[in-house]
Write a structure and sequence with these properties.
The complex is a heterodimer. By secondary structure, chain A is an alpha+beta fold. Helices cover 39% and strands 23% of the residues of chain A. In chain A, α3 crosses α5 and α3 packs antiparallel against α6. Chain B is of the alpha+beta class. Helices cover 37% and strands 21% of the residues of chain B. In chain B, β5 and β6 form a beta hairpin. The chains are: A alpha+beta, B alpha+beta. Chains A and B meet through β1, β2, α1, β3 and α5 of A and β4, α15, β9, β16 and α16 of B.
């Protein structure tokens, strides 16, 4: 699972019906003590400062993980109700053709969330569902909290 | 800024000089016309070489100084003298023929002009003795006319020069104005200007609040120290923290690549609401500085109690002790989740069996499967973690997820319970299994509906609010001990009858309101002077 959905660590319902989202932000420290080549260091810096741990540094994944020291966790109220959010996910999964409506109605919230993220790792990827999920998240997450997903580098 | 050139004394002098000189030129022309019947405006025909010479000299702007003017005068005089001495031809009119110098003495001598007058039978003469003692005799009328022409030519020359100088001022102003215009749109210049504005606005930007509760102080109690390291933030950050702007002497330490959004109007808005009470409480008994106001929060409960609620952004210095409250230790990174299905634990790894095979296109993602759990009970057991590669220390405590209390446990006898840093830790041995139990509890910050299912992702990164052990290989941690942080908080403002203002913040409107209630109660009790 990649993307901002990976950063979501909890989804709950508020009493006013809205969705309460808890997300984490990775915090990195530059590997000052580690012996790394300039190339690796530069790539790491670039990747971390732009806020996206891209595939180009996947070779250095271990080192990136080693540098990851912390998470900043933020909880905020989304601009969507809990029920509408999962209805949208159902709609995305149905339109993508993964499940029938009868099947998907038997899923609970956790299964829906896992299914839509799980579908990203399937053998025949269809980017439309990924895009739709990102658009959905982009719409429901308040703008000021979009930063809560982006990693930070100290060093 | 450039407009001051148009209003200064020098410019006014130039303008006055132009008026005076134009008057002089006009007088010269009228006198020449009346007295000699000569049109001085045709002077260019009279001495083309002189005029060109003057024009050329005047065009040479670099030579504009007193010496230049004297030099020009000398040029005019020389040329005119030469003309009168050797040029026998009428210059303007026939009248000038009479005015030519008629006698030139090459030898030093002193002669009474009147004798000469009588001797040569001409009405009057003007004598001029140069440095070498040579005396020239000029017809008096011709000498006056010579003076008139000199004044005219010099005035014209001076006028041209002054106009040239004004042209220079105008072009300079135009250029400066253009630069100003561009500078006003340059983000760096605007940034510097805003910094200056903010320095004026803050109580004392250099020393700021001198005390332990200084939100912008990097020194002080709690192990804070000066952060000399560069803080790199991703481009996603929309605002430069206020303290970075007003950071006296250390501003260069901040990465200017951070997009700059803070403005004077933004600060003015903050000041208009909170006045000088810009400092409020933030997490961990720290003080934060209110940096931005998103807007007022409408709340009937707050209105009834005469409390104003605002959604704001607060900045403060955070230290790594704070940060480590959320640390996922590297030891947890070494833990791996079981990768087989365990539907009995209600783990959504089971989703793979449930989903796979349906239409044949969803399969288990071995790359990075989300450890997602659907929590539909008040108390629920979650999946075990397996310490496949070493010891792990897990602390009992609440999770970072509001409304959840996570507790770690292990059913193996290999664990020992130890106390480190005043915290009770499990130290599970290699191969131990660590499980988690969730308890849904009431959150003080959010009104969570426990009747609906919650979805949580159990990752090693975000499990416990309290930190795990500090990794031994984190050398940079000691070097970077504090850093500016920003947080969205809700601020409750209450004004007492005596005019005293209380500013208290909370992570949610509800929390801010409950916080200020306590403060108001304390304030009222204090004012009653009971204790």
């Amino acid at each position: 699972m990649k993307g901002i959905a990976e950063s979501v660590i909890a989804l709950q319902a508020l009493k006013n019906g809205n969705l309460l989202m808890t997300v984490k932000k990775d915090v990195y420290i530059k590997p000052l003590g580690n012996k790394v080549s300039n190339e690796v260091s530069c790539k790491l810096n670039q990747a971390l400062t732009t806020g996206v741990v891209s595939d180009s540094i996947s070779d250095y994944k271990e080192m990136v993980e080693a540098c990851k020291v912390s998470n900043m966790v933020t909880t905020f109220e989304c601009d969507v109700t809990y029920d509408d959010f999962f209805s949208s996910i159902k709609s995305i999964l149905t339109k993508a053709g993964y499940f029938d409506e009868s099947e998907i109605n038997s899923f609970n919230s956790g299964e829906l969330w896992a299914a839509i993220n799980c579908s990203k790792g399937r053998n025949n990827p269809q980017p439309s569902s990924d895009t739709r999920l990102n658009v959905l998240l982009g719409n429901v997450i308040p703008e000021e909290h979009l930063d809560s997903f982006r990693p930070v580098l100290f060093g | 800024m450039y407009k001051r050139f148009y209003t200064n004394q020098e410019y006014a002098q130039f303008l006055r000089a132009i008026v005076e000189i134009k008057e002089t030129v006009k007088n010269c022309i009228s006198v020449a016309q009346e007295k000699y019947g000569v049109d001085l405006r045709e002077a260019a025909q009279f001495t083309p070489s002189t005029y060109e010479n003057i024009s050329r000299r005047v065009d040479d702007r670099s030579a504009v100084n007193g010496y230049h003017y004297r030099s020009v005068i000398a040029d005019i005089e020389t040329n005119l003298s030469q003309h009168y001495k050797y040029n026998a031809l009428p210059v303007f009119t026939k009248e000038l023929t009479k005015s030519l110098p008629v006698f030139i003495s090459k030898t030093p001598m002193k002669t009474d002009a009147t004798i000469i007058d009588e001797a040569i039978g001409l009405p009057s003469f003007y004598s001029y003795t140069d440095n070498m003692g040579a005396t020239s005799y000029f017809n008096k009328e011709a000498a006056e006319f010579y003076q008139l022409i000199s004044v005219y030519l010099f005035s014209k020359c001076f006028l041209t020069d002054i106009r040239g100088h004004l042209d220079k001022i105008h072009s300079y102003c135009e250029k400066t104005g253009l630069e100003d215009h561009l500078n006003n749109r340059d983000i760096d210049k605007i940034r510097l200007k805003t910094i200056e504005d903010i320095k004026e606005l803050l109580p004392n930007p250099y020393s700021r609040w001198d005390g332990d509760f200084d939100p912008l102080c990097t020194k002080g109690k709690g192990g804070w120290s000066t952060s000399s390291k560069i803080l790199l933030m991703p481009n996603g950050y929309k605002e430069l923290p206020l303290n970075a702007m007003a950071f006296a002497g250390a501003f260069e330490n901040y990465d200017l690549r951070i997009p700059f959004m803070s403005s004077k109007s933004q600060i003015d808005e903050v000041k208009s609401i909170f006045g000088d009470e810009l400092v409020t409480n933030v997490a961990d008994n720290k003080r934060g500085l209110i940096n931005k106001v998103y807007g007022k929060v409408e709340d009937s409960e707050a209105d009834a109690e005469d409390v104003s609620l605002y959604k704001t952004k607060v900045i403060y210095f955070r230290n790594f002790q704070t940060l480590y409250k959320f640390v996922g230790d590297s030891t947890l990174h070494r833990m791996s989740f079981w990768d087989h299905n365990d539907s009995e634990k209600n783990c959504l790894h089971g989703i793979s069996s449930k989903v796979s095979g349906k239409k044949g296109n969803i399969q288990r993602n071995n790359y990075s499967f989300p450890n997602v759990y659907n929590v539909d009970k008040e108390e629920q057991e979650l999946r075990f973690l397996d310490t496949t590669s070493g010891k792990v220390s897990v602390q009992k405590g609440s999770s970072v997820i509001p409304g959840f209390d996570l507790e770690a446990y292990t059913d193996k006898v290999t664990y020992t319970e130890a106390t480190k840093h005043n915290k009770v830790l499990f130290e599970a041995a290699y191969g131990a299994e660590v499980g988690f139990t969730t308890n849904r509890v009431d959150s003080s910050e959010w009104d969570i509906d426990h009747s609906k299912d919650a979805v949580i992702q159990l990752t090693p990164h975000a499990l416990f609010k309290d930190r795990f052990m500090i990794p031994q290989n984190r050398r940079p941690v000691k070097e970077v001990s504090s850093f500016p942080a920003e947080e969205t908080r809700y601020i409750a403002v209450w004004k007492s009858d005596t005019g005293h203002k209380e500013v208290v913040s909370g992570t949610s409107p509800k929390r801010a309101l409950s916080n200020i209630r306590r403060r108001i109660r304390k304030d009222i009790v204090d004012s009653l002077n009971i204790f």
